[in-house]
Amino acid sequence: MRSDLILIGVIGKAHGVRGLVRVHSYADDPATLEEYEALQDEQGRSWSLRWRGADGVAELRDARGNLISDRTAAQALVNTRLYVSRDLLPETEEEEFYHSDLIGMEAWEGTASLGRILMVHDYGGGASLEIEGGLIIPFTRACVPEVDLAARTVRIVRPAEVSGEEGQGVSGRSAEQQV
């Protein structure tokens, strides 16, 4: 798969018997998915999408314009990831980043490397960064005060709840003191 592709949506379950599917959009405005002439999947196939409902229901067409028109074909596409070429996306504002820009960056705490960012999670309550070794850091200015896109690094300041030594709990007390 090309490295310049950005994940913009995922096809969910089939909706009805006429080939409609639910699509989870990662765009700020889901309506923009209709504007992209060619959404690509992981197999390199191209798709176009038209919304057909207010709750994420859409119809899909392949690169030749063939409509997915039955439930069986729609079900075969469940969990298909849809990507768009990076150059088609708007430039980010200052202090705004695409998740794909952050993944793979080296996380530093002082002079120590914590590892690379593996994933950016966002479940609606704010984004968090998953760093090698299982460390999860809230993606806030307080915890990530510096993002250097050119150097591909981030500076981390762990909150007290996750900065304790091995064997210590979130309060900073040792295991013996917590009894």
From TrEMBL:
Pfam families: PRC_RimM, RimM
Domain Ribosome maturation factor RimM PRC barrel: start-end pairs: 100-160
Regions crossing the membrane: none
InterPro entries for the chain: PRC_barrel-like_sf, PRC_RimM, RimM, RimM_N, RimM_N_sf, Transl_B-barrel_sf
Coiled coil: none
Keywords from the UniProt entry: Chaperone, Cytoplasm, Ribosome biogenesis, rRNA processing
Subcellular location: Cytoplasm
Domain RimM N-terminal residues, every copy: 8-87
Keyword rRNA processing (UniProt): yes
Domain description: The PRC barrel domain binds ribosomal protein uS19.
Family: Belongs to the RimM family.
Subunit and partners: Binds ribosomal protein uS19.
Function: An accessory protein needed during the final step in the assembly of 30S ribosomal subunit, possibly for assembly of the head region. Essential for efficient processing of 16S rRNA. May be needed both before and after RbfA during the maturation of 16S rRNA. It has affinity for free ribosomal 30S subunits but not for 70S ribosomes.
PANTHER family given in the database record: RIBOSOME MATURATION FACTOR RIMM
Protein name: Ribosome maturation factor RimM
Lineage: Bacteria, Pseudomonadati, Pseudomonadota, Alphaproteobacteria, Acetobacterales
Gene: rimM
